[in-house]
Amino acid sequence: MKSPPQSAATPVFHVRGLTKVYGAGTAEVRALAGVDLDLNAGELVVLLGPSGSGKTTLLNQLGGLDIPTAGELRYRDLDLAHADEARLTRYRRESVGFVFQFYNLIPSLTARENVGLITELARAPLTPEAALGMVGLTSRMDHFPAQLSGGEQQRVAIARAIAKRPEVLLCDEPTGALDVKTGITVLEAIRRANRELGTLTVIITHNAVMAAMADRVIRFSDGRVQSESHNANPAAPDTLQW
Amino acid sequence: MLSHLDRKLLRDLVRLKGQAAAVSLVMACGLAMLIMARSLIHSLETTRAAYYQANHFADLFASLKRAPNDLGARIAALPGVATVQTDLAVPVTLDLPGLAEPASGLVRSLPDFGAPELNRLFLRRGAWLSPGARGEVLVGEAFAKANALNPGDPLTLLLNGRRQTFRIAGIVLSPEYIFESRPGAALPDSRTYGIFWMPYKEVATAWNLYGAFNHVAATLAPGASSPAVIAELDRLLVPYGGRGAYGRKDHPSHIRVTDEIRVLTILSIGFPAIFLCVASFMTNSVLSRLLALQREQIAILKAFGFSNRQIAAHYLKFAFVMVAGGVLLGLLGGVVLGRQLVGMYELMFRFPDLAFQLDFSAVAIALAVGLGAVTLGVFSSVRQAARLPPAEAMRPEPPASYAPSGLERLGLKRLLSHSFRIAVRNLERRPMQALFTVAGLALATALLILPNTFKAGIADILDFKWDVVQRQDINLGLVEPSSARIAHELAQLPGVTSLEPSRLAAVRIHFNGRSRQIGLRSLLPNARHSRAVDHAGREIPPPTDGLIVSAKLAEVLGARVGDLLVVEALEGRRPVKTLPITGLAEDFTGIAAYMELSAINRFLGEGDVITGASLGLDLDKRGEFLAALKKIPRVSTVAIKESMRKSFRETTAQMMGLIQSIYLMFSVVVAFGVIYNNARISLAERARELATLRVIGMTQHEVGAIIVIELVILAVLAVPLGLVMGTGFATVIISTVSTETVRLPLVFTSYTYAFAVLVVVTASFFSALVVLRKLKQLDLIATLKAPE
What we know:
The complex is a heterodimer of chains A (242) and B (788). With 242 residues, chain A is of the alpha/beta class. Chain A is 27% helix and 26% strand. Chain A has helices spanning 55-62, 85-95, 111-119, 128-134, 150-162, 180-197; strands at residues 13-22, 29-39, 44-48, 70-75, 78-79, 96-99, 168-172, 200-205, 216-221, 224-230. With 788 residues, chain B is of the alpha+beta class. In chain B, helix 2 packs across helix 9 (308-348), helix 7 (252-293) runs antiparallel to helix 14 (431-469) and helix 7 (252-293) runs antiparallel to helix 21. The A-B interface holds A 56, 60, 63, 65-66, 86, 89-90, 92-94, 96-98, 100-102, 104-110, 113, 116-118, 120-121, 144-147, 153, 160-161, 164 and B 396, 398-404, 418, 421-422, 425-426, 429, 688-689, 692-700, 780-781, 784-787.
C-alpha cells in the first residue's frame, strides 16, 4: 500500500494561482479564482462543494481537457497550462483515468471491449479481465452496456479508467446518478483501485457524506479552496449513509 | 416579432446549415430538372400549336406525279375534307459561289396572288414576293443562315436543268419545315440543302407543269377521321401517280418535334424521379436523425405544455425551410438551364419565336413532391419522439442495445479492431437506417452512370458506327431514276476511287394493321460501301427474296425475323409484294428497309435503274471532284459524310451533350450531398461517444477512423449496387428515348463506371476531411457534462 497523505515527496500536481475565466466583458465568469493546491501520489482526495463552485472546472484542468487562463498547473514535470493538444492527448492517454457521472461507455462494445479499447492504447495495462475483476464484474464481462445496471455500468467505467494503471484517477460525481446501495459498490471499487494500485484519486461531489472515506477533504466554493482537512482513519465506503 | 420557438428554429437552422443546405441542394437538382424539362415541353408544345394555328398548318399531305388543277375541287369535295391547297414541289440544284459542293433543295410554289390557304409562311426578314413580279425567291431561314444569305442577294438556281439567277426577296419560315432537312435524312444539313418558294407561274413554266399540281395539303373537317380521308384521297390520287397521303403524325418535320418532346418527356420523368427519390430518402433520414438528437428538447417542450401538434408543426417548419430553399433554387436553376436549352433548340428547329415558357404546373408538382417528402419524414420521427412521456424522454437515453456483429459471429473477431467493431455494430444495430443510407448512396451512384452512358452512345455513333455502316465518303442522289450507265460517267469524275450504284424507292410497309411509309434502300452483295449490320456488328448479307428492316421498324410494327410484310411501292406501277424479314439492321437514324439492288428493280418492274450512288473519294481531289460534279445537272443531292458528321456533332450531339452535362453536374452534387450529410449526421449522433473516446486518450485520427470506417463500409456496400442499378436505369431510359428518327446505342464503358466510383470516393474523401476537422472542434467538456 502506498504512502499516506503528508508524504514529503514531490506532489503529483502542483497548482498555484490557477484561474479560469469564461467569456469576456459583462459575460465574464470567473470559474476558478486563484487555486493553490498540491496533490500527492496515492492519496484519495474528496473535493467537496456546491454546484457552480468550480470543482468540475478544476477537474477539467487537472485532466488536461481544458487549459487555464492564468496560473501555474504542473503534473510532475509537465506544464499542463502550456501543453499543446497532442501533448494533452498523450497525457490523458498515459496518465489519467476518468470516471463520469453518466458513465459514458461505448454502447456498441461489451464491458470487456470497453476496457480493452483502453488497454490497447496503454503501455503496461492490466488485462481487461483483471480490471473488471477488481470492480467485481468478472461474471458480466461479455455484456453490452444496455444489459448492465447503472451501478454495473459505472463499475465498468471505473475498470476502464484504471486498466491502464494511470497515476491519476479523476471521478466527477461518480455516484450522482445512482441510488445509495449501488453508489456504495461503486465507491468500494474506486477505493480498492486507489489502495491496490496506489492511484492518486480525486472524487468531486456535493455529497458531504463521502468526505468520511477520504484521506483528505478539500472544500471548494466560489472558485477557491475554502478549507482542507485530513482523515487519520478514513471510513470504509459500506459504512457511509446518505 | 418571432416567437421563441421560431427563434429556436432559426438558430437550429444556422447550426445545421451544412446539412440543411445539402438537403436543399439535392432537392433543387431534382426539381430543376423537372421544371426545366416540363417547361421545355410546354414551350415546344404551345409554340408549335400556336404556330400551326396561326399559319394554317394542314392535317393531310400527299405528293403525286402530276394532276390537273381542277382535281383540287374534287379533293375538296371529299367527305371530311375542309380546306385544300394544291401546289408544286420540285427539286432544285444550286450553284453557290462560296460553297465547294453542289447544294440542292426543294422549290415550293406559292399562289401568284394572295397568301396560300394552308401552310402559310412567316416572313422573318425582307419582303414578300411582289405580286406578278418574276425573278424573285423566298428562302428558308435555316439555309439562309447557314450560307449567310440576305434579302436583296442574288441566288442562282438550276431549274429543270436551266440556270437562272433570282433575287432573294425575303427570308421565311414555314410550319411544314420547322425541321428543315433533306427528305429521309435524320439530320439537318442546312449548308447544302434548302427550301425555296416562288410564284406558281414561275415554277410551272420551268417544269412544264402549268395548270397542274404535284403536291396537295388539306385540313380535316371537325370530327372527320384521318385514316378514312387518307384512304379516299389515295384512291383519288392513284391515277395521277399519288405517292401515298399521310397525316400530321407522319409528317417528317412534325415527327421530329414530337420525337424531341417525347425524349424530353421521358427525361422529365426518369431523371427527376430518381433525383427526388434520393432527396426524399435524404430528407427523411436527415430529419429523423436530427429529431432523435433533439429528443430531450422535445421532452422539455412537452413538459412545458406544448402539444404534440405544436411540436410537429415546429419541426415541419424546420423542414419547410429546407423545401422552400430547394424549390426556390430548383426554380431558378430550371429557368436558367431551360433558357439555355431553348437557345440550343434554335439550332434544330425553326419557329417564328421559340421563347422559354415556365410550366407552372411543374412548379406546383415540384412543391408538392418536396413538401410530401419532408412531411413524411417529419411525421414519422416526431411521432416517435412525441410518444415518449416527457419524464422518460428527459432522462439520458439508455445505452442502445448492441449485439456482436455477424462478421464476428463468423469467427472473424480476432481480425477486427475496436474502431471497426464499433462501426460495424453501429450499422448492424440500425439496419433500417443503414439500408436507407445505402439506398440513398446507391441511387446517387446510379445517377452518375446515366449521363456518361448517353455520352458514350453519342461518341460511339460519331466515331464508330458511322464508319462501320457507311464506308463511303459521299452519297449522290439523282433527279430521277436513271439508267445504270450514268454510274460509269460518275466513276470517271476526278478523285473517285470506288463507286457503288444505289436505288431508293418510296414504299409503304404493312404488318398486322400497322404501316409505315419508308424508303426501300438497295444493298449490294459484298458491298464495300453501305451495309446492313446487326446488333453484334456483323454484316447481314442482302436478301434477294426478303427484306432487312431497321430493328426499330420491326419494333414499331411488332414484327420479328421470319414474319411476312406487305410491301406496297408508291411509285412506278405501284406493285405490291409480300416479303419475309430476313434480318434486323442496327441503324441509328431513321427507319428503312433494305433489299438487294437487282431485287428492288425486279420488284418495281423496272430495268437496270439507279437513283444514286455512293462514292469513295481521294480527299486530296475533293475540290476538283465537287467542281466537276456541279456540271452534272442530273445529280440533285450530295451528302458528304464528313459534313453530316459535323452537322450531327453541332446539333443533336451538342444538344444531348449539354443536357447530359447538366445532369452529370446534378448527379455529382447529389453524390456529394448524400455522402456529406451522412457523415455529418453520424458525427452529430455520436458526438458524446466520440468525445468520451477523445477524453480517455484516443487521438483525433483514431476517433475519426470510426466514422470513416462506417462511411467506407456503407460505400463499399452501396457502390456496386449503385453501378448495377445505374446500368438498369440507363438501359431503360436509353431504350425508351430511342425514337424512329434517332437512336442511341447502349454503350457501357469502363470510364463510365470508373467515373461514378471516383466521384463517390472523392465525395467520401472530402466528407471524411470535413468530419475530421469537425472532430477537432468537438467540445470535450460540454459533451461530457450531461446529455444535451
